[in-house]
Amino acid sequence: MGQRLRKLVSSLVVFGVVAAAAGWFLTKPEPWPASHWDGLGAPDPANGSLIFSAGGCVSCHATPGASGDAKLVLAGGLPLKSPFGTFHVPNISPDETAGIGGWTLAQFGDAMTRGVGSKGEHLYPSFPYGSYARMTAKDVNDLFGYIKTLPKSANVAAGHDLPFPFNIRLSLGGWKLLFFTDKPRVTIDASDPKIARGQYLVEGPGHCGECHTPRNALGGFEAGLWLAGAPNPEGEGRIPNITPGSKSIGAWSAGDIASYLETGFTPEFDSVGGSMVEVQQNMAKLPAADREAIAAYLKAIPAQE
């Protein structure tokens, strides 16, 4: 009997080790191979500036309350409250110690598009790498080049304040296994270059779905409800449905949408409000063709009531 028990215990131990190894293999951080970032050449800061605006980087990474040129100091520190705890936005200025000035392009690119930190750790999806995963290597390179031209800040942002078990980064591998993808969010006819460009901007650097798409209990996007509206992450009201099925925005023409992104005024002569103010100000810095592409995409996606 004792020998059978020892065999059973030994089998369970072996099974546990194998299961743990398999779990680690399936959920370990997966940066790009180094070759992914080879051959890109010198970054184009002008394009990097446009990607910076499309991504709304200042909205989260600028010092809270900053205005004017001070918003280009990406000192971090903004607290982001969520059902999982409070995240604190990091310093991504070119400071070599407090910011990302000492990072390589591969480290920056893996953080942006793979959710892998500079030390090879999983990053929390409060940083929208689930959207940035669609960005091209060229745009990532240009963005990194532009950020390196901005002022440095020695501010050290606070760490995240997360309760157990959300403070265990290894669990993020499981989250990525369930929800992380670099595939398009919706299936549409993107043979029109304008719609294809709009899809890239909205689903990628613009990360519009991060606020406009509802999430499940684990923080993943609800399947089949792309851009259908969601609770306001700031706690009050709702982020609107921006699909063609919306009772308000759905009636807008593509021209109305493009004009709204440029001017901040709706077809009803109302003005942009709330957190969308800063988004609109960022979109106004894009070329008119990009705003028109975003509008064309938003008119082409499946309607959600």
UniProtKB/TrEMBL annotation:
Residue intervals of the Cytochrome c domain: 43-151, 193-302
Molecular function as annotated in GO: electron transfer activity; heme binding; kinase activity; metal ion binding
The keyword Transport is assigned to this record: no
PANTHER family (UniProt xref): ALCOHOL DEHYDROGENASE CYTOCHROME C SUBUNIT, BLL4482 PROTEIN-RELATED
Keyword line: Heme, Iron, Kinase, Metal-binding, Transferase
Listed PROSITE patterns: CYTC
Keyword Electron transport part of the UniProt annotation: no
Protein name: Diacylglycerol kinase
